[in-house]
Design a protein that fits this description.
Layout: H1 3-21, E1 27-28, E2 31-37, E3 41-43, E4 47-57, E5 65-66, E6 78-83, E7 87-89, E8 98-109, E9 113-117, E10 121-124, E11 127-130, E12 134-139, H2 162-192, H3 208-222, H4 230-249, H5 258-264, H6 272-291, H7 297-314
Parallel strand pairs: 3-12
Antiparallel strand pairs: 1-2, 2-4, 4-8, 5-10, 6-8, 7-8, 9-12, 10-11
Helix pairs in contact: 3-4, 3-7, 4-6, 4-7, 6-7
Length: about 325
């Protein structure tokens, strides 16, 4: 057996030992973190997706959840091509209170070998949780060394023909002439036309709470949940509230989860009962969207009523500023 074959086998054994010694998915306080690959075997330059997930109970009392920070590379051999936003979903409809936050990384490598993707750390309520290590195999393309090698063929010289050139490019020539004629016409038209007085239309700024309340009233008139469109009904309530919160409190509510929105509002001067109403409405919308929850009729009505009350309690009035309720 050749020495390079022995070294390659030893390298595989060492990497497998590293994986076996790595800790399994950590389960503590209802939290489970994981890192998994769509495939762990690639050719040089091929791509695969690395899924980073954290599962936890909605009732576990988590107040802080910080994902690992990713840059352009995982290590000197594995590159990150793109990163998705962190999304929140309910992976099992039979467990609607178990939530999952997930981020996908598109990765590749341009060096053959066996690479260990190290554990990633999450900060959850001041505790550190780590994913298990993952092994990535990158193989080079096989080259048939027995095949003959040929020189690159040189380009064939062909004499220039204006007739052939004109035949091949007549479309571009016609387009160029048409463009010149249009430009001449526009220049003459703009030069000879009389200037018109500009009339500026003054569009009054509509307060953000007025817009949100009007949208909620239109949603009430559509009677979506009465027609069986419960998911659309709660999705629109969530979108109206998130748009209002984004403009009212200058936080990126459209891209954040419910927990992230509530953390972003914790320093705002908002009454506690208003925060509770907002949390109930957004949580029910998440359950309907991700867990296919079927609320009762009074719950559907209360979501819209509590949304209106939250906006009225936090709207900007002549006696308030953008920072104070």
């Amino acid at each position: 057996m050749h020495s390079w074959q022995i070294n390659m086998k030893m390298k595989k054994i060492v990497n497998l030992l590293i994986l076996l010694l790595s800790s399994a998915l950590i389960n503590a306080q209802g939290v489970r973190v994981a890192a998994s690959l769509d495939t762990n075997k690639l050719l040089i330059g091929e791509q695969t997706t690395l899924h980073i997930t954290v599962d936890y109970s909605a009732e576990s009392g988590i107040t802080q959840l910080i994902f690992p920070t990713f840059y352009d590379t995982i290590n000197q051999y594995v590159e990150i091509l793109s990163k998705s936003a962190i999304d929140t979903l309910i992976p099992d409809k039979n467990e609607p209170f178990v939530l999952q936050q997930k981020q996908d990384l598109l990765i590749t490598s341009f060096d053959s070998g066996y690479y260990v993707i190290p554990p990633f750390q999450f900060i959850i309520n001041s505790d550190t949780f780590e994913t298990e290590a993952t092994l990535l195999e990158v193989h080079s393309l096989l080259v048939d060394t027995a095949a003959a090698i040929f020189d690159v063929k040189q380009p064939i010289d062909e004499p220039f023909s204006f007739k052939d050139w004109l035949k091949e490019n007549w479309g571009w020539i016609a387009l160029g002439i048409a463009t010149i004629l249009i430009l001449i016409f526009l220049i003459k038209y703009l030069k000879n036309r009389k200037p018109k007085e500009e009339v500026k239309e003054i569009v009054p700024d509509i307060p953000i709470h007025i817009t949100a309340l009007e949208q909620l009233e239109k949603l009430r008139e559509q009677k979506l949940w009465q027609a069986g469109k419960v998911k659309l009904y709660h999705s629109q309530i969530s979108e109206i509230l998130r748009t209002y919160i984004e403009k009212r409190f200058n936080i990126n509510a459209m891209e954040e989860t419910t927990d992230e929105i509530m953390r972003g509002l914790r320093l705002q001067a908002i009454p506690n009962d208003a925060k509770e109403k907002l949390f109930q409405v957004l949580t029910l919308a998440d359950l309907v969207k991700f867990a296919k929850e079927q609320p009762l009729a009074n719950e559907n009505d209360m979501s819209l009523i509590m949304s209106i009350e939250f906006i009225n309690q936090t709207k900007i009035t002549p006696n308030t500023t953008q920072k104070d309720v």
